[in-house]
Amino acid sequence: MKKNNRILVLLFTLFCISSFIITELYEVRADNTDITEVCKSKGWLYFKNQTEIMEYIKNYADTTCYEDKEGIYVVIKDENVKEVSAIGNSGNGGLFSKYSDMAFRSIYETIDLSGTFGDGYQLLHVTREALETHSKGYTKEMYLQADARLLQIAESCNGDTDYEKISKAYNYLCENVAYDHSYVKGTPYSAIVEGTSVCSGYAESFQIIMEKLGVESYICAGNISGVAHAWNAVKVDGETYYVDATFGRLYGDKEKFFLFGTDSRANIYNITIADHSYNEGSISGIDDTDNISNTDNDENFEINYNVTEYPNEANPKQQEYKIILLILVVATIVTIVIVGLTVYRKKVRK
User: What is the spatial distance between Cα 215 and Cα 192, in angstroms, rounded to a whole number?
Assistant: First the structure.
C-alpha cells in the first residue's frame, strides 16, 4: 500500500513539474528569432524595446503627411498598445505644433496574435487619414511635390534672425498665393504648386516652412464671425504673435496681419501674447477680438480598438508544446487510473 502511495506521489510530482515547464515554454511561445523571422516573412515590423517602437511610429506619423490606407503593421505587446496609439494625434484643441498633426491623424487597429505568438501580443495596423477637410484625397505624390517646392522656398527665406525668416515666408505667401474664392482648394500642394488656396493652405504652407527653418510656430484652427479660419502663431524674441497670410493677401494689407496679437485670442489658446497689440480693430466688418472661438477636435483622437481574430496558422513550436503537454496529461491520468485499479483489486481480494 505504501509503495502504491509513493508511486502516486511520484506521478503527481512529475505531472506538476512537467506542466510547469511546458507552461513556461508555452508562455514564451517562440524566442525573438522566431518572431523576427515570422514578421519578416509577412512584412510586419518587430522591435525588441518600447523606445524603438515609439520612435518608428512617431517618424511614420511625422513624415506621412498624406492619406495612407495601406499603412504599416507592427507587432507589439498588449501593455504598450495604448501608449503607442497616442502618437500622431497630438493636436491641442485648435492649436497644432506640427503640420502633420493638423492635416492628418493616425488610425490604429489591433489584431489579435494569440494564434501566432501567443497571449500578450497584438498586431498594430497604423494608417493615416485626412483630418482637415481639404486634405481628403491628398496623395503621396502631391505631398512630395509640394514638400520639394517648400524646401526651396524655405531655403530662399532663410536669414540671420527668426524675424527675418518669418517675414520672408509671410511675404512670399501673400505675394504668390491667390485666395481660392471657390473654397475648393486648401492644401500646401494647391497653395505652392497650383498657386491658389483657402486659409488652410496658407497656414499649413507657412507652418511647413517654419518647421524647415527651425522656427517655433503653430497652426491655429478656429473661426471668425462663425466662419472657420486657420492662421499661425510664431515666437519672436520670446514672445508669441499671430501671423495671418490669408488676410494679408485677401485684404491687401500685409503689415496689418503680420506679428499682431490680442488678449482675446491668447486666452483661447492659452499662449502668451506681447503686452502691446498691433490690432487696429475691425477689418471689413470682421471683429478680430470678440468672435474667435476654439475648435474642439478631441473626438478625432479616439483610438480604434476593434479586435479581430487573425486567421494565420499557429507557430509550430506552440503545437509541439501543446502535443507534449497533452501526452503528459493523458499518460499521467492513465497511470493514475491503472495504479488505482490495481490498489482497488488488491483490496477486493483481501
Answer: 20
Q: Is the pLDDT of residue 347 over 70?
A: no
* Closest to 76 measured CA to CA, from 37, 33, 128, 111: 111
Q: Which three cell numbers stand for residue 242?
A: 499671430
Q: For residue range 25-71, list pLDDT tens digits in order.
A: 544 444 444 788 888 888 898 887 778 888 999 899 989 999 999 99
Which H helix or E strand runs over 348?
A: helix 316-349
Q: Is the per-residue pLDDT at 7 higher than 70?
A: no
Look at residues 37, 41, 32, 43 and name the one whose alpha carbon lies nearest to residue 70.
43
List phi, psi (to 5°) of 29. 70, -60
Higher per-residue pLDDT: 57 or 223: 57
DSSP designation for 273: B
Q: Which amino acid is at 28?
A: V
CA-to-CA distance for 144 and 150, rounded, in angstroms? 10
Residues with Cβ within 8 Å of 144's Cβ and at least 6 positions away in sequence, in order, are: none
DSSP characters for 63-129? Answer: H--S-EEEEEEEEEEGGGHHHHTTTT---BTTEESSHHHHHEEEEEEEEE-TTTT-TTEEEEEEEEE
Alpha-carbon distance of 181 to 16, in angstroms, equals 77
Grid cell digits, residue 100: 502633420
- Cα 319 to Cα 19: distance, rounded to the nearest angstrom: 15
The letter for the amino acid at 173 is L
DSSP state letter for 286: B
- Answer yes or no: are the C-beta atoms of 329 and 18 closer than 8 Å: no
Span 247-305, pLDDT tens digits: 899 888 888 888 877 544 444 333 343 333 333 332 222 233 332 222 222 222 222 22
SS (HEC) of 218-269: EEEEEEECCEEEEEEEEEECCEEEEECHHHHHHCCCCHHHEEECCHHHHHHH
Angle made by CA atoms 101, 218, 81, in degrees to the nearest 5: 30
**DSSP readout, 330-342?**
HHHHHHHHHHHHH
Pull the grid cell for residue 185. 482648394
